[in-house]
């Protein structure tokens, strides 16, 4: 996306419709990185955006999935989809949540991180299986369920799907890192 123009013009406060204004007000209370990235695109469909915000608030504030595993799953998805803005926005949250720097860097380079705790390994294997193969083997699924329990497992799977939607919006809209920042993800090898 370096050197490629975004496909959506940036919304301005003056240009917001009456349907967009309450969604913007809600977003302003809960997002970390302003209204750029996927939010600017989502606002083109205010009712859909409002539903996505509801889910984001659930994943951010109400899920019992630990923050470290939640942010790890989002980074896995961002890496697999080469969603530059998603990585840019969630890497600091992953670091703050306690995800090891070596794990983050291996993932950024498209490698399976070494020496992960068992819960991270289960999240990695499940997320990568779902993203690449669109399913998970019994062994991968059962390992994740044994470590997370069914409530957290369902939240994890749903969250992966929700952030996949974000990656689709970002990539279709050609949204990279915010202006003045380098793209954080190198291209993936092997046709991915």
Describe this structure in words.
This protein has 192 residues and is mainly alpha-helical. Helix 1 runs parallel beside helix 3 (46-62), helix 4 packs parallel to helix 7 and helix 7 (118-133) crosses helix 8. The protein has helices spanning 20-30, 38-42, 46-62, 67-81, 84-96, 101-108, 118-133, 138-172.
DSSP strand content: under 5%
CATH architecture call of the largest domain: Up-down Bundle
The SSE order reads HHHHHHHH
What class, by secondary structure content?
A: mainly alpha
Number of strands: 0
CATH superfamily of the largest domain: AhpD-like
Low-confidence stretches: none
Descriptive key words:
192 residues; mainly alpha; single chain; AhpD-like; 2 domains; 8 helices; 0% strand
Give the secondary structure arrangement, pairings included.
Elements: H1 20-30, H2 38-42, H3 46-62, H4 67-81, H5 84-96, H6 101-108, H7 118-133, H8 138-172
Q: Short summary of the structure?
A:
This protein has 192 residues and is mainly alpha-helical. It has eight helices and no strands.
């Amino acid at each position: 996306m370096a050197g490629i123009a975004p496909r959506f013009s940036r919304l301005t406060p003056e240009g917001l419709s009456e349907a967009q204004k309450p969604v913007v007000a809600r977003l302003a209370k809960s997002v970390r990185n302003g209204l750029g990235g996927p939010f600017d695109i989502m606002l083109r469909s205010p009712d859909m955006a409002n539903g996505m915000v509801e889910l984001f608030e659930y994943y951010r504030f109400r899920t019992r999935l630990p923050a470290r595993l939640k942010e790890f799953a989002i980074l896995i998805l961002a890496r697999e989809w080469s969603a530059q803005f998603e990585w840019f926005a969630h890497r600091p949250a992953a670091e703050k949540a306690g995800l090891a720097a070596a794990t983050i860097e291996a993932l950024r380079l498209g490698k399976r991180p070494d020496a992960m705790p068992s819960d991270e390994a289960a999240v990695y294997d499940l997320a990568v299986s779902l993203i690449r193969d669109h399913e998970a083997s019994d062994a991968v699924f059962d390992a994740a369920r044994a470590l997370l329990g069914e409530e957290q497992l369902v939240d994890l799977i749903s969250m992966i799907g929700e952030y996949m939607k974000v990656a689709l919006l970002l990539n279709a809209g050609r949204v990279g890192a915010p202006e003045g920042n380098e793209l954080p993800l190198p291209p993936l090898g092997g046709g991915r």
